[in-house]
């Protein structure tokens, strides 16, 4: 177990993820309820990390491209006074609090952090303030299978150490979802939640919303009530 005082950490988490309704369309997933499950899971994970976190949905994001929206969101978090930021999405079911703690520990020691996805993208980015160069960051090949390669090159320009977390599968489509459900990790709790959601849809039951409240910008979300993310 890593020994860090997260209550006084200068690292914040940026959850850069659209609402379930918008994400389910952009990812061509089977239904909105799947994204409800994934959103609820990642919110619970970041809450349990003990770090301040900020959820930027399509309502908080600003910009005409993915790169510009991502850049502006990171800039907003740094302007709140944090020295480092951990950026994650909502599409990696096996992202854990332990991995977030490893990222925070590495950042606290001056390292940058990347978590690679199986498809060549990234599920986690960790940077200190001095490693965020807005213009170069925005120009990276976001949403491509080359992102992992190019982002590592971006970080290497700063000559510091890079912590590389274990590779995980993300879910960008229905095909990814069913591949994930058929894998070795099917024993994980999130699998049961996803399968239950799909079963309810198949039987024409109405899926209740797991998460329907916004985490507001400029207020550390882990200062709020735990009932926001109750399972």
TrEMBL record:
InterPro entries xref list: Nucleotide-diphossugar_trans, Trfase_1_rSAM/seldom-assoc
Source taxon at top rank: Bacteria
Pfam families: DUF2064
Database matches in Gene3D superfamilies: Spore Coat Polysaccharide Biosynthesis Protein SpsA, Chain A (3.90.550.10)
PANTHER family registered for this protein in UniProt: GLYCOSYLTRANSFERASE, SLL1095 PROTEIN
Protein name per its UniProtKB record: DUF2064 domain-containing protein
Protein's organism: Nonlabens mediterrranea
